[in-house]
Amino acid sequence: MDAIAARVAEGATVDFRPSGSSMVPLIRSGDLVTVAPVDPARLEVGDIVLARVAGMVYLHLVSALDPTKGRVQISNNRGRINGWTGRERVFGICVAVRGDPRPGALAKAVAPEPEAQASDHDPAGSSDR
Q: What are the CA-CA distances from residue 4 to residues 1, 55, 70, 103, 111 (Å)?
């Protein structure tokens, strides 16, 4: 997940297949997801983001926002809160799952540089944390 986060942080839109069950039914283990760079100021509760929290990279939900401190709370889809992280550690937003667009997500994405487009079908990514 660190390599995927680095590519998204550099401006790439990345396809990958995370493993784990913490985001079911939104994302199932092995589903193809597309993550694009994000404008963190546009995030809303319910967005699925790729973010670093307490040293780990997660593909999880935004469960709360604290605009005065510039941070977001990250949780899985089973009620577990991973913690708060700064907006600068939110690398991307999930814009599609299994080829189906996530409502409103694309409007929050930052347009990638043409040469930054990438695809990674490595199943080593994990959303189960």
A: 5, 15, 23, 23, 17
